[in-house]
Amino acid sequence: MTSASAEKVATRYAGTRVPRVEDNRLLTGHGTFVDDVVRPGMLHACFVRSPFARATIKGIDASAALAMPGVHAVFTAADLNPDVKEAWHAVAGKDVADTPRPPLAEGEAKFVGDPVALVVADSRYLAEDAAEAVDVDYEPLPAVADFTQAVGSPVVVHEQYPDNVAGGMGGAPPDEETFANAAHVASANVYQQIYAPVPIECRGLVVEWTAATEELTMWASTQTPHELRAFCARLLGIPAHNVRVIMRDTGGGFGQKVVPMREDMCIMLAARKVPAPLKWIEDRRENLMSAGQARHVDGNVRMALDEDGAILAVDIDFAYDIGAYPTPYPVLTTAAVGMFFPGPYRVPKASFNYKTVFSNTAGLAAYRGPWQYETLAREILFDIAARKAGIDPVELRRRNILRGDEMPYFNPNGMPYDHVAPADTFEQAVKILDHEGFRKEQADALAEGRYLGLGFSAYIEPTGAATGHLGTEGCTIRMEPTGKINVYVNGGSTGNSIETTVVQLTADALGADIGDVSTIQGDTAVTPYGAGTQGSRSGPMTAGAVAEAGAILRKQLIAMAAARLEVDAADVELAGSRAVAVGDPDKSVTFADLAYRAYYEPQQLPPGVSSSLEATARFASPPEAMIHWANATHACTCEVDIETGRVTLTRYIVSEDVGPMINPNVVEGQIAGGTVQGIGGALLEDMTYDADGNPLSSTFVDYLLPTATEVPAIEYGHVEIPGPGVGGYKGVGEGGAIGATPAVINAINDALAPLGVTITRLPASPAAIVEAIEQARK
């Protein structure tokens, strides 16, 4: 693309509240989810799951199940597991040592819900009945369900890890002299419970194996169709071009659907052993019991301050529960908690140490903002430090938060912050709130015996981190003979509105009317490779891919139009799905006319002008744009009923910097969704186990989710500091879920401060609050 034409690329749609293109089908019930897929003769799968947290599998008798009409097969570990060729995930890579992950339990069940056998029948109903008829001879064994008691326990989850520690890491050791001599030192033990992604649509697959051609087609509820395809090819030992993954609509993922889990492996392996396509749809009990846990951390944190409240040092030492079968390489990914712990503050010294610990519970899975504990622990500690130093938490943050004029800034763990100004989002949130006004209201309420509280939470996070297989993204843009435009990206509809934003970006890149642009996503047969929806990468990476492919096609359109209009290429402007001569708007040609000539009259094109109206490009982030740092401040006010422990959230404010917004509606929707999940984690959601490892919250009767009655209207503030990448766009997918939980806990603690109560063990349920108040009174 010439520099002259590049200057004429206008942003007519990016930055505007374009209605979501996917809403019509989704809101009218015309979406296509995995369970909507029906194939001729399709069979259905159901797993036999262990009722014990730990037990030896002495034998499996499937004769009664196999005798039932409509039952086609019962597979055990001996049938499926030996067929595994390779089972590594791109998120870790093939050369990284990983923890065990057999498709079906081998010899020993390691958590309640561990898949032990797979039943295939004519219907899900028959498969469930047959699963109950499978007789598994278990010998129950002692289990370790509490990961805080697992290190060095006589109960060993995996023989390869006799101390139940998968691994760990330490940064620089704590500067104990600084802590010993500081004017103020605050410390806390912060325990976060298990809570999970809980997408509306549970996991699911339809796998169809065609033996004659050795081709496999898979319809999947996934965030990463191309990685699912590659994983399946590796797993089965077949060429990747023989595997096709089709992802239509996905009812939420939140990280849980990034990598194929053990059940997915089983369905892929079993599909080659049955005479028809095989469908597995996870039910809600299975999802809560075995689709993975998240957030379960126990840690000790410290902060040293000087007499003026300036941070001198921070330290975090924590253990992370990874369950029995975590998703790939939990040791390294957990390091992010320690690396990011200094947060968006001016911290001269930081130290961290951690262990990842096995337990007889469901394995650790990715969840929106998987390093969220660093913000939770730091921000709770920040308020504790403020009360100890006698400084308002707002003022203490103001004295320590990083400003834009300090960038670039390396945190003490070497993380390179740039293109951010955390002080800006913080001050905007304080202004929206009216901090002084609230403090007066709070004092007046306390005089009446009412307990109001205010909590803040500030964080900084890396988005669009372009490392490993996440470092590139592909895009194909094709103008059809009608002049209409299709844009092909890996994408996929998981609630992140990538369909809408990619249409906006493409329309701007080509100067097309947005109604002339459509997108095709989620089908590996026709879309370029992409790493999918994870790590808040879709916005910045897809923008880069669209920009590169768009520039190629734009140059071609301009060359065609210049020849047709008999003007220089530098004097052609693309807008409104037309090519127009600069300074002579009457001299123009429509995209439809250009496309007609390219496809049906190519011989009329001048020599040297290609008839191609299709461009494919692969965007790779340059070294200076490997990370796009986003940041936000959350502010929450609440009222706590000290008799019942009920918490009522009264206001919720988010000021966020994600760079220029491609679509403010989409940005705010992402913030809102994550914020609600964080509120649920603070107040309600709790995946509990008893001492024997039995799950106590495997239905929505026991696992409580936030609804519209628990969540106030969210007020938004936007700070737009462009990032280093294309368009200055940063990611927005995870921030709400990171910042919300500590803001809510800090608001509760602020309300209860007059009673001497500080909640550091989550969730802050009514019972927990009442108990804490009673303990303080004693």
CATH topology description of the largest domain:
Aldehyde Oxidoreductase, domain 4
- Name the CATH class of the largest domain: Alpha Beta
Assign a percent range to the helix content: 25-40%
If you compute it from the alpha carbons, what radius of gyration comes out, rounded to the nearest whole angstrom?
28 Å
Can you name the CATH architecture of the largest domain? 2-Layer Sandwich
Domains (count): 3
Distance between the termini: 74 Å
Q: Count all strands and give the number.
A: 28
Count every helix, treating DSSP H or I runs of 4 or more residues as helices.
21
Strand content: 15-25%
What profile does the largest beta sheet have? 7 strands, mixed
Protein name: Carbon-monoxide dehydrogenase large subunit
GO molecular function: iron ion binding; oxidoreductase activity
Keywords: Molybdenum, Oxidoreductase
Cofactor: Mo-molybdopterin cytosine dinucleotide
Q: Any overview of this molecule?
A:
The chain is 29% helix and 24% strand. It has 778 residues and is α+β, with helices and mostly antiparallel strands. The chain folds into 3 domains: 3-30 and 467-623, Aldehyde Oxidoreductase, domain 4 (2-Layer Sandwich); 34-141 and 202-250 and 257-290, Aldehyde Oxidoreductase, domain 3; 376-464 and 628-777, Aldehyde Oxidoreductase, domain 4 (2-Layer Sandwich), CATH 3.30.365.10. The strands form 7 sheets. The chain has a 7-stranded mixed beta sheet with strand order 3-5-1-12-9-10-11, with helices on both faces. Strands 7-15-14-13-8 form a 5-stranded mixed beta sheet. It is globular, with a radius of gyration of 28 Å. The chain starts with a helix and ends with a helix. The relative contact order is 0.13. Pfam families: Ald_Xan_dh_C, MoCoBD_1, MoCoBD_2. This is Carbon-monoxide dehydrogenase large subunit. Its cofactor is Mo-molybdopterin cytosine dinucleotide. It comes from Mycolicibacterium rutilum (Mycobacterium rutilum).
